[in-house]
Request: fold
Amino acid sequence: MDDEPTQLPPALPALRARARDAGFTMSSEDRTGSLLAALAAARPGGNILELGTGIGEGTAWLLSGMDRSAALTTVELDPAVQDVGRELLGADPRVTFVTEDGGTWLDAYGGALFDLVFADTWPGKFTHLGRALDLVAPGGIYLIDDLLPLPDRPAEHTAAVRRLLAGLEEREDFRCVRLAWASGLLMAVRGS
Ligand SMILES: C[S@@+](CC[C@H](N)C(=O)[O-])C[C@H]1O[C@@H](n2cnc3c(N)ncnc32)[C@H](O)[C@@H]1O
Reply:
């Protein structure tokens, strides 16, 4: 067995082509995407949050796992990259695209708690961590990636990851699983 995902979202090839054209290199890799889809599928009718839409590859993976009654909110600072996802995925009524700084959005959000939070940008991960964790429903999941050191990641990244992991360990209401797989993931599940 290898770990190459086989059930790819239909929009993925088009999103990838647009990412290549735009020189956008920050999309989640397929293994991470397949985990996002599986976690989304585990939440029928789930309320799901993605922080950092990028071009929309993670969004496509999440949508591919969600059932018809689940809802996804995805927040992105850069309208130029998010517009690609809006164009290719925006006809799906389950997704709401928000163009705003993630930290500002997190601070202002007053809606229902989330069953799954994919925190894939600075706010909700390296900043506003407590706020993002507070928005996870009991039994809900907080997921982050890009935790393994890579040659093209700045030295501050390692220190920031160390602080992030320490911050998560302080939260006794979450059980954490570290996955040294794909880009390095951490899944934290909120106890009830
Ligand atoms: C790692 S990429 C997201 C990839 C995407 N989630 C995926 O799975 O393909 C991070 C994104 O966060 C966005 N970003 C950077 N700072 C932000 C902020 N303060 N608020 C919201 N988004 C931000 C970047 O523009 C970038 O598109």
